[in-house]
Design a protein that fits this description.
Elements (H helix, E strand, L loop, with lengths): L1 H7 L3 H7 L3 H26 L3 H11 L1 H5 L3 H10 L1 H28 L8 H17 L10 H16 L2 H14 L2
Helix pairs in contact: 3-7, 4-7, 4-9, 6-7, 7-8, 8-9
């Protein structure tokens, strides 16, 4: 509460008028993050032209919501606020299903390889996201979390795309300057 008061310029007393305790405050923050992400995700999914466009757009536009948060926040939520952590865990299951949906979509379009194990690839993709969000990803390279996320996305897409998908991906990259 002291840190929040200091960073926002709002007195601790005023904060306490709106939030009974830290649990309520953390729950509100987590809930707000999830709702913001979900709202933006739904908007971007609605305008995606294809499965690759969805991944490129989501990763460039949405991933920053989570990576801009100090990794210690997630550690502390997991350790001290189990109910809020469960909400994040539940949301990660929803995200896993979204990844599965994207993989199935890409396979139907002929953009992703037919021989990929959808459940395994979705799980690996979730681990990529979680490792970037929850901890300081160890790397000898001097790069920001956003740069690292882009590299992991390219590695991911290059590993699952067909030749048709790779050509489309290259076209998007030229247009977006990803």
């Amino acid at each position: 509460m002291d840190d929040l008061s200091k960073h926002t310029g709002i007195s601790k007393k005023t904060i306490c008028q709106y939030f009974a305790d830290k649990d309520v405050l953390v729950h509100a923050i987590v809930n707000d993050l999830i709702q913001l992400h979900e709202r933006l995700l739904n908007n971007f999914q609605a305008i995606a032209k294809d499965a690759i466009d969805e991944i490129v757009t989501l990763d460039t536009e949405l991933f920053g919501i989570w990576t801009d948060i100090d990794h210690r926040f997630f550690y502390e939520v997991e350790k001290f606020f189990p109910e809020a952590w469960l909400e994040l865990e539940y949301y990660s299951l929803k995200m896993r299903n979204i990844i599965i949906g994207n993989l199935e979509w890409g396979k139907k379009e002929g953009l992703y390889r037919n021989d990929i194990n959808v459940a395994l690839i979705a799980e690996l993709r979730m681990h990529q996201h979680i490792s970037l969000i929850k901890s300081q990803f160890a790397t000898t390279q001097k790069m920001s979390t956003d740069q690292l996320a882009k590299e992991l996305t390219m590695l991911y897409l290059q590993s699952i795309t067909t030749e048709k998908g790779k050509m489309l991906l290259n076209n998007y990259l030229k247009k977006e300057e990803y």
